[in-house]
Design brief:
Elements (H helix, E strand, L loop, with lengths): L6 H6 L37 E4 L8 H11 L3 E6 L10 H14 L3 E7 L9 H10 L4 E3 L10 H22 L2 E5 L10 H7 L7 E6 H8 L3 H9 L3 E6 L1 E7 L2 E7 L8 H11 L5 E3 L10 H27 L2
Parallel strand pairs: 1-2, 1-10, 2-3, 3-4, 4-5, 5-6, 6-7, 7-10
Antiparallel strand pairs: 8-9
Helix pairs in contact: 2-3, 3-4, 4-5, 5-6, 7-8, 9-10
Length: 322
């Protein structure tokens, strides 16, 4: 969830490989790069790609999105393929190739897509995997599984069955799944979903680790345990920041720009470098960005993305070296 926050007020007061393609340079991607895909603007010793999650720019059509993302200095785009996304799931076979072509014409890549899929029985599941495979998109993020908090053991078991069905499609189409840990949902503490993921083929299912959510759920030290837990089968990383704030409604976790929150970036990227992670890093902008018009909101969002990218590249270079 996103919350309004005052920056001034706040400042005042991750089995070994072949487990995960992102963990070493010699581990092949599910597909080789296609013609027109970008070569990463490498940040020091990091050999992966830094991409922008397209969610905060919903009004931008594909070509304009790509041009702006390129101008900011990103390597590619983490494209939403879900309801209200940049590609609608019911039109994935028609529109995803067009979107990817538009992005690649700008010299950018689409190494991953973010979907609303939770089961192989979803109407768009097979078409999404098959289209991603045809386009040499290596990674896919599924949607979330929710606890009803009535019987968490059976709820986890049901979610596990649905996730395993997606992994069968991943294996069939050779597109890797990264499970995203998100606060409050199944997988938030990671130990629960690890019991589902660890027995499965690491070539097709691993973690899309979000250190912001791990920190929110892990408090003082459990987020470090989670970082270590996922480190051997990482697929992708999601980066964002947050802080706890006291409001009239109680304590809430407020999203904020990178470096202004509670995430220990120095420790985190040191551990990522130690693990040999070189997969996609997706920058998320979940904090409130002002704008009275669509144009002003877009301008401010792009400026915020640029600032966060600068911070992110600096932290990666510190950890991975030059």
């Amino acid at each position: 969830m996103a919350h309004n926050f005052s920056r001034r007020a706040f400042l005042a007061a991750a089995s070994s490989l072949p487990a995960a393609a992102g963990l070493r340079a010699s581990a092949p991607l599910a597909h080789p790069p296609s013609p027109g895909q970008s070569v990463s603007r490498r940040t020091g010793g990091f050999r992966g790609e830094i991409v922008l999650f397209s969610k905060p720019l919903p009004q931008m059509e594909w070509q304009r999105l790509a041009a702006n993302v390129k101008r900011l200095g990103f390597d590619g785009i983490d494209l939403t393929v879900r309801p209200e996304g940049h590609v609608l799931p019911e039109r994935v076979e028609e529109d995803l190739p067009k979107a990817v072509a538009a992005i690649r014409r700008e010299g950018l890549s689409v190494p991953m897509i973010t979907t609303g899929l939770v089961s192989a029985s979803d109407p768009a599941a097979r078409s999404t995997f098959s289209t991603a495979a045809a386009l040499s998109i290596s990674y896919l993020k599924p949607d979330y599984y929710r606890y009803e908090l009535k019987d968490v053991r059976s709820e986890l078991a049901r979610a596990g069955d649905r996730l395993r069905s997606l992994v069968e499609l991943a294996k069939e189409y050779r597109v890797q799944i990264g499970f995203h840990n998100h606060e409050e949902y199944i997988g938030a503490p990671l130990w629960d979903i690890a019991s589902v993921i660890e027995p499965l083929d690491p070539a097709w299912i691993g973690y899309y680790f979000d250190v912001r959510h791990a920190t929110a759920e892990g408090g003082v030290g459990c987020w470090k345990i989670s970082t270590n837990l996922v480190s051997r089968r990482l697929k992708m990383l999601a980066v964002k920041d947050f802080f706890w704030e006291k409001t009239p409604k109680g304590w809430l976790d407020g999203n904020c720009p990178l470096g202004e929150g509670m995430v220990n970036w120095k420790y985190f990227f040191r551990e990522m470098a130690r693990a040999g992670f070189h997969g996609p890093i997706s920058l998320h902008l979940e904090y409130d960005i002002p704008g009275s018009t669509t144009a002003e909101k877009e301008k401010n969002t792009l400026e915020a993305a640029g600032r966060d990218l600068t911070f992110l590249r600096a932290r990666i270079e510190e950890a991975y070296g030059s």
